[in-house]
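Hello forum,

I keep getting stuck at the same step: I have a sequence, I want structure tokens, and every attempt I make locally crashes halfway through. Rather than fight my setup again tonight, could one of you with a working pipeline run this one for me? It's a single chain of 431 residues.
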Amino acid sequence: MKKYCCATFIFLISLVFIIYSVNFYFLSRLSHDNNKLKSKLYINENFEYNDVEDEKINHENVKLKPIYRNRNPKYPSLRDKLINNYKPCNRSLNYSQIWETVDSWSKETANEIYPAYSSRMCQVLSALREVKILSAQNYRKGTQLKLNITVEGGKTIVFKPAWYTRNQVIEGEVYAGKDRHNSEILAFYLGAVLNFRSTGLVVGRSINIRDVFQLADKELRETIISKGNGTKFCVYGKCFYCKPSESVCGNKTHYMEGAFLYEISGPLQKHKSPWQRTYKDGAKAVWEIESDNNNYCDNVKQKLSLVRLLDLIDASIFDFLIQNGDRHHYETRKNRMILLDNGKGFANFRTDFTDILAPLYQCCLIRKTTYTRLLVFTGGALTEILKELTKNDLLHPILNEKHYYALERRLLKIFSMIEFCRSKNENSIFQ
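Reply #2:
Ran it on my machine without issues. Output:
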């Protein structure tokens, strides 16, 4: 009996030791993986500073509270809603019905192009990815090559071609290079995540440029070049900067990546941004010269309504995340700002042009709803949800990993600037 009790006791002790050891191992691995993730997201990488505001922003970054670095408990619920809203589905409506649906969405409010949640969203995105092209023309507005693509159901879609690969880095000024098609795609999903639903609907898609040649009108055909005895087709189009020496070409099978953009219904009004750049070497705009005081924003407040100013501040946060420093003009519909032309983002993952945030740090104002929404996507949640939402796009992956790390870094910088403003004006910054 004693031997039996002794053996049982030894067995139980051994079992407890084994369980403890296994748990310790997995907890250690979990801690290691978590620290590894945090090191990727938060440790300073070798990236470039470009603006006088970086010293302020980095000082605040060091002191950031855990609320800005840890996962928000509200995130899982919102994540599930977003994923469910954008998951693929079978299309049950015909194309005409789908385009009518989108147009009816954009008529409901001045600056919301689509609803936060709709059972028809997946059908709309599916239609954009698969709809048949009927004809093609030059899109003559703007400074860069775009095509007007007429599709089944009588809708005209704007096609922005791919000029760069995912890993290509564009050096230089914040507005350097041509538009990036993947920036347009990512901007659509980022707008949905941040509840800035004022971008047009965008999907990634490849078109066969040789087939488009057969469907093109005379003007567009004249700008499509056949090279290598018909082995390659290239297009340069008609626009302000379009020229034959700068054409974009299909691959070996004549396919060309690009962004399919659903045009926002108007009427739209165009305005010069108060934070417009000079686009001249060595020449600074007034807002850059007066960056160290609040006089510039005081002048802007006299010319714009508070709603318009807060729209511009929202736009600056959106643009800073994607690094679009080219919003020299902006469009409004019924006096509310919408976010068009988001193609100048994601040029260089190492570079943060902090002066894109000038409306935020010069005015030290932000919508409380914007701040609250940003807080939901802390601790790596922003990139996690963007990866999840874009994984069903035909051109997946939309970004490489380095650009996702840059997004997380920039989100922390936004929180740092908000804290800098709070240190000056406390909670009066929230509107």
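The first strand starts at residue 48 and ends at 49. If your local run keeps crashing, start a new thread with the error log.
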